[in-house]
Design a protein that fits this description.
Helices cover 27% and strands 37% of the residues. By secondary structure, it is of the alpha+beta class. Strands 1, 2, 3, 4, 5, 6, 7, 8 and 9 form a nine-stranded antiparallel sheet that branches. A hairpin with a 2-residue loop joins strand 7 and strand 8 (133-138).
């Protein structure tokens, strides 16, 4: 009987500890906050270019991405090389300026991706958000879609 009571006490203690752990997780207040992102200081990963999905090629070192800083600078990776430059912003009007990059040679598919990315960045006249996506526009039409990445 004493042996049975010991097991019952142990089982009750485990159940209460498990219940407390579940209660503490579920008792956290719902703040109603959604993940925050903004045009600046967000890591934007390219997911679509000229309406076509963008995926990493096997020989590609990193994903295509950009980050705009509060001081009017942009930096990122175009599939083959680093890119840097500036941007101007007035409301939802956005223009990239003085884009430059490193000059490493890459396999032809990556060089083509880089050329298309740079041409599209140079053509941008505005932007809009679609949820956590940044849509870059040329005269109101989408040319690139970026997803916010939380680091």
């Amino acid at each position: 009987m004493l042996h049975r009571l010991t097991y019952l006490s142990l089982a009750a203690a485990i159940a209460m500890a498990g219940g407390c752990a579940a209660t503490s997780d579920s008792a956290k207040p719902d703040t109603g906050l959604t993940p925050s992102y903004s045009l600046t200081n967000t890591y934007w990963k390219l997911t679509e270019l000229d309406g076509a999905p963008v995926t990493m090629a096997p020989q590609q070192e990193r994903e295509v991405r950009i980050t705009l800083t509060d001081d009017g600078k942009v930096h990122g990776f175009t599939g083959c090389n680093q890119v840097m430059g500036g941007y101007t912003l007035a409301g939802t009007a956005l223009r990239f300026t003085q884009l430059a990059g490193t000059r490493m040679a890459c396999p032809p598919p990556l060089m083509q991706l880089e050329s298309t990315v740079l041409a599209n960045l140079n053509s941008v006249t505005g932007y809009r958000f679609d949820g956590e996506y940044l849509i870059l526009l040329k005269d109101g039409s989408p040319v690139a879609r970026f997803e916010s990445v939380y680091l």
